[in-house]
């Protein structure tokens, strides 16, 4: 069973594992990694610096391609968990959900640990846990099947999770070794049954003349408070907090003073169709925060229509909503129906929910602890903004029928025409990967591959530009795949008509090659992203029609 992995062209693959069951698919260079009796490979961390992929699974952490460590649940917590009615085989185990880099020597890792979440440091030198577990409440979920997100920013862990055993108390928190936990208010107007999907930092602080702060953005779907609806209406959201937030002095003590949220719109207005469940988000960061584009995958709450969509958002538009948007407030309309309406009164100053900036510093407000109670009370009662975040082009970039997208990553590629193209990789709940290219404002699916053999859901998807690989985590294993399969196109026509920005026809070797592998001789390479195969040697390319 044990096979060595066939080395990929270029920088090679990390899944050259000697201890696991590695099955190399020679044709497509897809490698699988899984260990017997280990499941739920849902947490992935890439360290380009260490040249390693870390995988968090059920009761195990792996460093591919080197080592693994076990982290099981001891007798007592296991017993407590089963006494509370949870299953010993399923729930009362340790699902690793947090893997974050602390420094060159250590990772911070957390697991559900039989519904008593725990965190510990993993020493990379000998790949061992410190063995001094810390309370993981507010950092990691109790329930392995509950939605969850986390990001480490400058040594502080930001999480979106639940704070209690029942999973009924949602929380967006920041844990730092030197301060007490900063968190959201426990109130349905702040968070209402959220499903967290993603969080990341946008470094605005370094680039702004107004002295504004870096911000951490969270993406989730929650139950609407603002609309009257028969049953639960789901709403996709973007929320953000400021990195420098320290909480309030009296009001909002140890709570965010900068928590604001807005609706993410992904809809087809002309058809009155709304994609209202966000499943994953990828932030394509530019050199400047203004060049950043946020990509999200959505489906509709009414799943029977079988449509998935990709919407893209301009970071400038997001920032605009948070810095200038109108607030909403709870209004009690007749018969105790509560919904939310636009707040039309006078807004206190400084602007509620704003980060500390130079203007505030001039007013001697150098930290959130100095914010006036009026501002704090206001943001406590009005965390929701009325203005929604609209997608680029006012509609989805891509709509696909009969799939449920679960994951998304995006890479910006410079093609031979010297233009930059956003290449979108979306994973489905059936283990399929779609590759799409944004070309002249429209998106074309250029490739579809069955990444996971047993049609399971892709639970996590990462992209490494360095090794030009994708890594997909699922319940039964991890898969590594190249970002392009140019070699499968055997003729110049097929190669060019694929309209894949990674691929070009090499006249010298008469093969379809990856332009990033090819020696720098663009003269001998043929690529045409509008699918014009006329430049192919025989010249008959254009008559061969093929739709993408
Ligand atoms: C873990 O994997 C098992 C086996 O594939 C699956 O049945 C289960 O739903 C997974 N659990 C979670 C919490 O993802
Ligand atoms: C985002 O919007 C700003 C302002 O409207 C514009 O200058 C910028 O080009 C846009 N960026 C993208 C990636 O669309
Ligand atoms: C800020 O504090 C300084 C020193 O305490 C004081 O002189 C100044 O008047 C204060 N400015 C404002 C706007 O309150
Ligand atoms: C998508 O997911 C929904 C809800 O889980 C399911 O009912 C539906 O069959 C799925 N559709 C496809 C095409 O997989």
From TrEMBL:
Pfam families: PSI (PF01437), Sema (PF01403). Residues 14-483 form the Sema domain. SUPFAM superfamilies: Plexin repeat, Sema domain. One of its GO terms (cellular component) is extracellular space. It is a single-pass type I membrane protein. Belongs to the semaphorin family. InterPro entries: Plexin_repeat, PSI, Semap_dom, Semap_dom_sf, Semaphorin, WD40/YVTN_repeat-like_dom_sf. Coiled coil: none annotated. The chain crosses the membrane at residues 12-30. SMART domains: PSI, Sema. This is Semaphorin 4D. One of its GO terms (biological process) is axon guidance. It is found in: Membrane. Gene3D superfamilies: ligand-binding face of the semaphorins, domain 2, YVTN repeat-like/Quinoprotein amine dehydrogenase. PANTHER family: SEMAPHORIN, SEMAPHORIN-4D. The gene is sema4d. Keywords: Developmental protein, Differentiation, Disulfide bond, Glycoprotein, Immunoglobulin domain, Membrane, Neurogenesis, Phosphoprotein, Signal, Transmembrane, Transmembrane helix. GO terms for molecular function: chemorepellent activity; semaphorin receptor binding.
